Amino acid sequence: MKHLLNLLAAIALLVWGTHLVRTGVLRVFGANLRTLLASGMRNRFTAALSGIGVTALVQSSTATSLMTSSFVGQGLIALPAALAVMRGADIGTALMSVLFSTDLSWLSPLFIFVGVVLSITRPASPAGRFGRVLIGLGLMLLALRLVVEATGPLFESAAMRAVLASISSDVLLEVTIGAAFAVVAYSSLAVVLLVAAMASSAVVPLDVALGLVLGANLGSGVLAVLTTAKSEIAVRQVTVGNLIFKLLGVAVAIPFIDLYLAHARPYMADATQLVVLYHLAFNVVVSIGFIGLTGWVAGLVKRLMPVPKQSSSTSRPQHLDPSALSTPSLAISNAAREALHQADIVETMLIGMLNVIRHNDLRLADELRKLDDTVDRLYSDIKYYLTKISREALGEEESKRWTDIISFTINMEQVGDIIERVIID
């Protein structure tokens, strides 16, 4: 029981470390990451490169998927370009798994010490938020060492070996378990690193480890779909298209697991390298091989999930995507766009007010009063959306934007009330 608790604690520490790194990088570089993504949309290949760069920093293809999906939902980029970004994002995650698979545990105390010092001494500054990233990196490296130390004694038991033997007979079961782990851990990177550590300790056979890696890749796609389940259809199209690519890739890769082991084993004795390089090779081959299919998959997704025609009604929020709340800089941008939507309605009311005054148009006056109700409703929705964004997760510039948006929406709501009173009088 003690060894099992040690393993579970090490896994939890690994997952928490990846969470700290992801959220820390988004807090420090959130706006710059969005700019990097947007600037790489000239063609499919530059889009993929921007996906590699952003994901290498964030260490989460899911976070990249949410940012990209939000861009599509706002009409800033086309669906094929977004799918190309996700091909690069998968490579970025795989590159990070290769980096962390090397024995860097000696850096763990240094990262944690420096990170804690920065976080405590300068908590509200970019240096303090970067300290959070260092703490996450240190915890990840420490957790990987603890996983290796905990798996040895635990998996010496006959019962555990019998369980592992039953898994090794069914590759679909391996893929399913790997996918479930990735969803529960909210990180395919953490699962791949865990599997690599277990393979290096001979806890799981290599063929089982590779099946779990394929499942982790599939699980990251499922996780993105679940995260955006309540978002608008244009946003969900990206995650569903990404999942289709992953399903195709896993289906193609399963028959070649034994072939990879037969050719790679003579050159790589280290099980950890075998696992993480398989993860990298899988994503590189799938991304390069399938990047030409982004247009076809985009068309398929649009047929499966057609975007309904926009209603002429402006009464509902158009940009307040709940899935973006985990990326504060993105959520701030969504709130700003919704505030502009509110301002457009107020402008319509101003123009209409002049016609009411000049022509005593009672029907138009009634419509303008309804628009004021819409302005009030949007104000409440924007304010509620902003309150769900953690202020601690915002940098100095983003905190100022948060305050500016609140002030702007209050002013728009007051202007709407003034127009309504003028019309009534």
Mean pLDDT: 80
Oligomer class: single chain
Low-confidence stretches: none
Put simply, the count of helices is 17
End-to-end Cα distance: 77 Å
Number of strands: 0
**Range of strand content:** under 5%
Sheet with the most strands, sense and barrel status = none
Number of domains: 2
Q: Supply the helix-strand structural class.
A: mainly alpha
Helical proportion, percent range: over 70%
Radius of gyration in whole Å, from Cα?
Answer: 25 Å
Q: From N to C, what is the helix and strand string? A: HHHHHHHHHHHHHHHHH
The outline comes out as: elongated
List keywords for this structure.
80% helix; elongated; 17 helices; 425 residues; Methane Monooxygenase Hydroxylase, Chain G, domain 1; mainly alpha
If you had to describe this structure to a student in words, what would you say it looks like?
This protein folds into 2 domains: 2-155 and 166-304, no CATH class; 322-424, Up-down Bundle (Methane Monooxygenase Hydroxylase, Chain G, domain 1). The protein has 425 residues and is mostly helical. The model has no long low-confidence stretch (mean pLDDT 80). The protein is 80% helix and 0% strand. Helix 11 packs across helix 13 (271-290). The radius of gyration is 25 Å and the shape is elongated. It contains 17 helices and no strands.
